């Protein structure tokens, strides 16, 4: 059942992805107009209108702001940290495999912040969770890339633990809980992108974790410059990321994988 849900999520996301859906809608409208159906102008205008709104309005900011503001980082760092949980999604497996060097994407803070934390907290364990989110995984898992990167950055091998089977946030939470078996009263930080934190916290709580949110990789702000000084491709990509998180929150809640529709601190 888990495999079926994983495949379905990947297959359904392609037509539901806002940019793809807008293109399909526009093509449908053009096909209808070519066949003499005047009402085809409406789907064509809807598809074109979506891209115009992305270009003219900070929709990428509006859709992500509530997600990123949901969980704030604590004002003071805990005096003792027993472990640091790092979710996959920041490494590029295929590029690493092709070039032989650890490659990171726009969520690179997921991988750099834990290194700074573990240097300040010699008592902490560093746990990475991530296999491959692809339907056709390559030779390297995300955990393989993370291990190579952190070893290159000087993190001692004996302080790191890797979970390399999970394909999504739900499996991240369940697999790492089974692997690590955190003790009562331990302090664990959960590191992931700020917009992904509500879903991650809901899922990890449901799996039994009592982790402290430690968001990174913020993509929103409150100044006009932050809202407008972004290229169209980046705006579209970030809007799709935010849309995907809202869809994921709803789907996980309906499946009982998260403790609330919109988890809160």
Secondary structure tally: strands: 5
- What is the CATH superfamily of the largest domain? HUPs
What sequence of helices (H) and strands (E) makes up the elements?
HHHHEHHEHEHEHEHH
Strand content: 5-15%
- Taken together, the total number of domains comes to 2
Name the CATH class of the largest domain.
Alpha Beta
Quick one: overall form?
A: elongated
CATH topology of the largest domain: Rossmann fold
What is the count of DSSP helices, taking H or I runs of 4+ residues? 11
Give helix % range: 40-55%
Estimate the mean pLDDT confidence.
91
Q: How far from one another are the termini?
A: 31 Å
Which structural class do the helices and strands define? Answer: alpha/beta
Please list the strands of the largest sheet in the order they lie side by side: 3-2-1-4-5
CATH architecture tag of the largest domain:
3-Layer(aba) Sandwich
Poorly predicted regions are: none
The largest sheet is: 5 strands, parallel
- Estimated radius of gyration: 20 Å
């Amino acid at each position: 059942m888990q495999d079926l849900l994983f495949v379905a999520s990947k297959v359904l996301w392609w037509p539901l992805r806002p940019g793809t859906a807008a293109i399909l809608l526009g093509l449908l409208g053009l096909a209808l107009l070519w066949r003499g159906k005047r009402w085809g102008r409406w789907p064509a205008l809807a598809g074109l209108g979506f891209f115009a709104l992305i270009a003219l309005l900070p929709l990428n900011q509006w859709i992500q702001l509530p997600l990123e503001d949901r969980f704030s980082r604590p004002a003071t760092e805990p005096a003792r940290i027993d472990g640091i949980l790092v979710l996959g999604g920041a490494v590029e497996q295929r590029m690493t495999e092709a070039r032989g060097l650890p490659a990171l994407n726009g969520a690179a803070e997921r991988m750099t912040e834990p290194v700074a934390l573990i240097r300040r907290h010699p008592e902490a364990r560093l746990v990475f969770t991530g296999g491959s989110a692809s339907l056709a995984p390559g030779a390297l898992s995300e955990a393989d890339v993370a291990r190579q990167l952190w070893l290159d950055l000087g993190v001692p091998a004996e302080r790191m633990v890797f979970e390399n089977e999970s394909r999504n946030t739900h499996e991240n939470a369940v697999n790492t809980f089974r692997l690590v078996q955190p003790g009562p009263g331990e302090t664990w930080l959960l590191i992931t992108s700020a917009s992904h934190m509500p879903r991650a916290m809901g899922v990890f709580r449901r799996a039994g974790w009592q982790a402290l949110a430690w968001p990174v990789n913020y993509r929103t702000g409150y100044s006009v410059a932050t809202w407008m000084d972004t290229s169209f491709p980046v705006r579209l990509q970030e809007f799709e990321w935010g849309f995907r998180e809202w869809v994921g929150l709803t789907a996980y809640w309906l499946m009982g994988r998260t403790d609330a529709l919109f988890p809160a601190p």
